[in-house]
């Protein structure tokens, strides 16, 4: 720009000033431009306050200016919006630049950038900051990018789900955005998936049914307690970063598990299905919602101390003909090769499911976890299954057998370090397409009645098994942060059923500092 056209580049913040001094050129891909607007140099009023007046001599020589807002990468996957202002001496030249950039942006909008979004805000998620986060950090960015929105602040749980399922005029929108945590995201998934199946005549109650993928993309503005879906798909739980991924029109397919009990649909899961430890943590933490995000630490500690185990059988259909394994060192990242290979392999081939292919593991378990994605979150940046993939059509089934408290603690601690949490004698992990769990004392339909008479059953089991450590017969399933009413479930992975407004976690530059070079002078 400097050399070829008579434009003068005026960079607006300190970081930029250091860039002019240290870089010969700085390029921004058009796909990462958010907006372009004229700038009134004399008044200096059309910008958002970051405008600093140019020396008078320069403004006289270059009185025509325009500002380009674009995505800038910061540390740890964070994106922010930056402005760069160009000055020139002729109004016609400025118009030519603005028009050309706008034409390019219009072409992108025609392709994959959203123009009209439906936004649901949970005012009670996480630290109860949803509305404030949206108004202060996200709405101004959507406005800057000329995205129009219909905003609904939810009034009760399942408001967003039910609105999407039945009422929402989905044809009007290019995507749905939720402001909240994993629970809010789950509501959106349930609303959109159920609606799509109904409109296509698919029966959700049949575990074997192939579900129809949803066409609308989902954006998550993180404002919850765990924000695991956001963290594991973007690399950070930051509202501005997520909003920018929506604006540039990113798209990331994602697997969804369906959970059934006796040919009845229960729920969908896109992150964690956990029985035993994570089920018990959730059940306890639900009674302590008033504690906010800290409830999970409290209930986690308590559940760790109670150290209950649960008996049952897990049968599973291993995913064959795939490249990835749960013990891989490679990670699912933007443009993931494994997802591109394994996903279509499972999505589009109808592999016959021979009963013979199923494996069975029986025993006493502290935890049975199915992670359809890494489940990375601030608590465990590598997640429950670090090598799991977002869109490969599989879930990683992690079985933690009964062991000592000390060993279980070692296993838990490894979620927070580089050590392999699967490399322990009492832990096994399988990459699967389907699985079933049957608790030891489960008797078909009478299961619920038995659970209701839990006390009776509990004392009965203790009498029958005098050596038992008085663990209750059943735990609960934690299904993406919701408790399921049944212990015996059947789970199937639906490959790439939904799409998110992200691109997956971007690889970090080898030397991150090179992305933001220090001032050379
Ligand atoms: C000693 C430290 C060990 C730390 C081990 C941390 C492993 C954490 C793995 C987190 C996986 C989260 C998976 C995400 C699930 C979401 O779909 C769901 C909805 O938001 N979140 C939860 O269910 C919320 C689940 C929250 C679970 C929190 C578990 C906290 C365990 C604390 C154990 C303390 C033992 C201390 C002994 C001295
Ligand atoms: N207006 C509302 N009032 C009460 N509950 C709501 C409302 N809107 C949504 N919910 C419910 O609140 C629950 C929790 O919301 P959300 O996921 O946003 O936050 P969180 O639980 O703090 O975060 P996380 O799921 O990440 O742990 C969801 O299951 C959702 O169904
Ligand atoms: Ca997966």
Describe this structure in words.
This protein is an alpha+beta fold. The chain folds into three domains: 7-111, Roll (PH-domain like); 113-251 and 501-521, Rossmann fold; 255-496, Tumour Suppressor Smad4 (Sandwich), CATH 2.60.200.40. Helices cover 30% and strands 26% of the residues. It is built from 14 helices and 18 strands. Strands 5, 6, 7, 8, 9, 10, 11, 12, 13, 14, 15, 16, 17 and 18 form a 14-stranded mixed beta sheet that branches. It has a four-stranded antiparallel beta sheet with strand order 1-4-3-2. Helix 4 (130-144) packs parallel to helix 8 (239-247), helix 5 packs parallel to helix 6 and helix 9 (277-286) packs across helix 10. The two termini are 23 Å apart. Mean pLDDT is 86; it is low at 1-6, 8-21, 44-51, 452-467 and 513-521. It binds N-((E,2S,3R)-1,3-dihydroxyoctadec-4-EN-2-yl)palmitamide, adenosine-5'-triphosphate (ATP) and calcium ion (CA). N-((E,2S,3R)-1,3-dihydroxyoctadec-4-EN-2-yl)palmitamide is lined by residues 181-182, 226, 228, 271-272, 278, 281-282, 296, 300-301, 304, 375, 377, 379-380, 384, 409, 412-413, 415-416, 478, 480-481.
Summarize the structure.
About 30% of the residues lie in helices and about 25% in strands. With about 525 residues, the chain is of the alpha+beta class.
Number of domains: 3
The name of the CATH architecture of the largest domain is: Sandwich
Apparent shape:
elongated
The fraction of residues in strands falls at 25-35%
Number of distinct beta strands: 18
Largest sheet: 14 strands, mixed
CATH overall fold name of the largest domain: Tumour Suppressor Smad4
Mean pLDDT level: 86
Helical content band: 25-40%
Number of helices: 14
